[in-house]
Amino acid sequence: MMRLAFIAAECEPWAKAGGLADVVDALARALGRIPDGTGELVDVFLPRYRGVPVPEETRDTGAVVVPDPRAIGSRATVGVQETETHGYRLRLIDYPPAFDRADIYGYEDDPWRFGLFCRAALEVLRSDAVPPDVIHVHDWHACPAVLYRDLFYADDPLLRDAATMLTIHNLAYQGWIPRSELPQLGLDPDNRILAPDPAGLDLLWAGIEHADIVTTVSPGFAHEALTREGGFGLDGALRWKGDRFTGIINGIDADIWDPATDTDLAATYNRADRAGKATCRARLLAEVGLDPDDAGPVIGVIGRLDHQKGFDILADAADRAVIGGARLIVLGSGDSTIAAGLRDLAEGWPDAVVFIEKFDRALARRIYAGSDFFLMPSRFEPCGTGQMIAMRYGTPPIVHRTGGLRDTVIDETANPGQGTGFVFDEPTPASLLDGVRRAVEFFPYAGQHASEWEALVDRAMAVDFDWERSSAPAYMTAYRRAVEVARSGVPVAAGAAGDRAPVPTPP
Ligand code: ADP
User: For 18-27, what is each residue's pLDDT tens digit?
Assistant: First the structure.
C-alpha cells in the first residue's frame, strides 16, 4: 500500500489548459486500479478556479491557515473541499483572491497564487491521520511544495519522511521569480542558499534540486532535455540529477478516448469494424464547411497556438502548396499572431483549409475521428497526447521526430508494413511538406493501395497506450525508488558532481 498525494495546477475534467490535465486525472485513476498500485485512492490537490464544475457530492472539509504576505495579518484562511466521484480524492483549495479569476494561468502574480496553493496543500496533508508516502508534484506550479517541505516541514511528523517526486510535463515553463519578489512566496530574499542565482529563483530548478526523483513524460524527451539544445537552460541541473532523472511515457485513458463509445461522434466504430469512421468523416467535413464528397485526404490539427506546437511552420508550408491536394482542419486557441497566420491561410484557401479558433472538447473528438491524418509539427514535445488519441481513433499521425512523438509513432516510409504513421526530421516547412507528401502518397486514391492503407490504420489502432497497462506500473516503480532515495538520506543526486544543482543557464 502506498499513499500518494498529487499537487497540480490542472486536472481534467475540472480544469484543463493542455495535456497536463489529462495526465494528472488518468494517472491518479489508474494508480488506484492496477493490481500492484496504491490499493487506495490517490489525493489530487487542485486550486478551485472559477468555473470548476464542482459535483454535488463535494463536501467542505474545513479550512487551513497559511502565511500570506497579501492578507490582512499576513495569514490567509483557505477553504478545502473534497469529492471522491472520479476515482481519486479531489481536494480543492479554495481561495478566491488567488483563484476566482477568468483563466487558470497568465497572471503576473502566478508565483504567489501557486505558492499559496502549495502551502495550503501541505497544511491539509499535515492535518490528515496518515502520512503520505510520496508527494508527487507536477510542473513548476507545484514546485514550491517540495521547497516548502524541505524548508518549513523538515521536522513535521507527517511530512518529514514523505518522498518527493517532480514530473516535468513542460520544460519551457519554469516559474521565474525575481529576488525582490521572493517574499510573495514566503521566502527570504537574502537567502542565497535557497536561491543561489543573484537574479532570483527558477521554481522548476528548485523542484529539480529538491525532489528525490524527477521524471519527464517520455524517454525521448528525457534524452533531449539533457542536452544544451533541448534543456531550456536546465540541462545542467538535470544532468546533475544523474539516474534520479528518467522519462516515463504518458498513456491515454482507453475508456475516455474510445471511438466505440464516444458520444460526441456522429457514429461509433472500433478496430474490427470501422464503417462508422466514414460517417464521422462526412459529418465532420459538412460541419466545418468542406465538401464531404471529396475523397482526398483530410488532415486534422489540434492544439494550443504556441511557438512549441509549430503551427506557424504549418502555415508557412501550407501557403506554398496546399499540401498535395490535402485539406486541413485546424482547431486551436492561444497566440494571436499564430492565429492570424492561420486565419490568412484559411482565407486564401477557402475550399481546402478551415481554421476554428476556440477550445472545444467535442469538436476535437470529431476531428480525431473524422480526419484521415493527424498532424503534429511540434518543435519540441515532451510527450504529446494528440498522436496517441489519433492512433486510437484510426487516424495515422504525421509528426516531427522529437520527444515523445518519436517514441510513439513508427514511420511507415522507413519501416514499410510496420509503421503507425509518418515521421519527418526537421521542424521546417520543407521537412513538414516531405512528411505530408509521403503520407498523402500513401493515402488510397480510387482504391489504389487500399490494403496497405487499411493495414496501417489497423496497426495504429492496435497500439495500446492505456495507462493501466503501461505507464501507471512504471510510475509505481518510480515511487518505490523515490521512497528508497528518501530513506537513504543522501541529500544530493546520485553520482552528482558538486552538492548543488547548477543554476539555469540562459539558452
Ligand atoms: P499540451 O499539453 O502541450 O497542450 P498535449 O498534446 O499533451 O499538448 O495535449 C493537448 C490536449 O489538449 C489534447 O487532449 C488535445 O486534444 C487538447 N486540446 C488542445 N487544444 C485544444 C482545443 N483548441 N480544443 C479542444 N481540445 C484541445
Answer: 889 999 999 9
